[in-house]
Amino acid sequence: MLKVYYRIIISCWKTFGISHWFFLWVFLPPLAFIFVRLTLALDEIFFSKYRDIKVVKPIFVIGHPRSGTTFLHHVLTQTEEFSTFKAWHIFVPSLTARILVKPLVDYLVKHNLNSLIPDDIGHGISLDRVEEEELLFLHEADTQFVLLTTPLAFDDQEHPELRFHDQQPASRRRSSVKFFESCLKRHIYYTGKKQVIAQIHFSTHRIKTLLEIFPDAKFIYLVRSPHETIPSHLSLDRNFLDNQWGIKNIPLDKIKRYEERRYRYNVDLYRYFYQLKKNQEIPEINVRIMRYNLLISDLYKAFEEIVNFTGINPSEQLKYSIKEQAQQQKNYKRKHRVRNLEEFNLTREQIMKDLSFVYQEYKFDQITNKL
User: Fold this and answer.
1) Distance between CA atoms of residues 215 and 211, nearest Å
2) In this structure, which of 46, 105, 205, 315 has its CB flanked by the most CB atoms within 10 Å?
3) Is pTM, for the whole model, over 0.90?
4) CA dist 94 to 163, 182, 205, Å?
């Protein structure tokens, strides 16, 4: 973790110079780390019973970003009957800290000051909105989000240890997942809701470690044509970089290098799951592959398949809500623009070549992107 922090500071200095960003990243991460670790330690005193909680048959939504993971996560959790994290819960995983922070959160929500990232960039974040639990791994500095949300995005070095989690030393990879488990236990204790449904798409790279800690977990792997996910994800990243730093403040060569890396990382994410499946390294009983097109064309059928696979017991309210949403789904229009591949120095032919195994495995039509 110290190595990652050191590289963040170096990258920030090289990218933005001695600016407000530099001082922000010098002082804020250590303060946040101390606050989180101290309050987590206080949980052991004031809320020690959380350790008796068992995480049973958690449901993990994985897959390539922009393949419908966020959409499915929100669909399944819209009635708040399962254990899911809102954004502020992720930033404040400690039960002790939540007592201190909740009045501030309530004030911000009441006065409409809860938006952290606007929806029009492609993935908005609000304090009181359900968010992807992959972000919990930021507290361990062990997720690809470190390569996006910090100046490490522009580092001269690459950091494969932040992507290939299953290949980390056993102590490191298991420590991160055990931390994740402790967060889930705390949240079950906090909400009283035992069924976990978590969106952790980048943790496709740690699926074997997750199965070591959660052998009864159910993984829903969403798959969508790379010709749709790649430009959508790169567009989201470009929008995020602009919202976070201001594109004009980032040297063009660093943006280009970041997007070249991000494309390779996207290919690797597809390839890793494909290889696990091909080599039969993950039990079929634990994983269900679901096509994005089914979510769009017949949402309720997709929901029924998930219920049968996971064994969850949804409320009548959730069933009704999904039926209603299935009717409205055909009229959905995204709020953000997906940029052309050429803006990222990519072509359809290159994607077809680099991800040919995806098209062959899932029988995607390389011309129309349909199944």
Assistant:
1) 5
2) 205
3) yes
4) 26, 10, 26
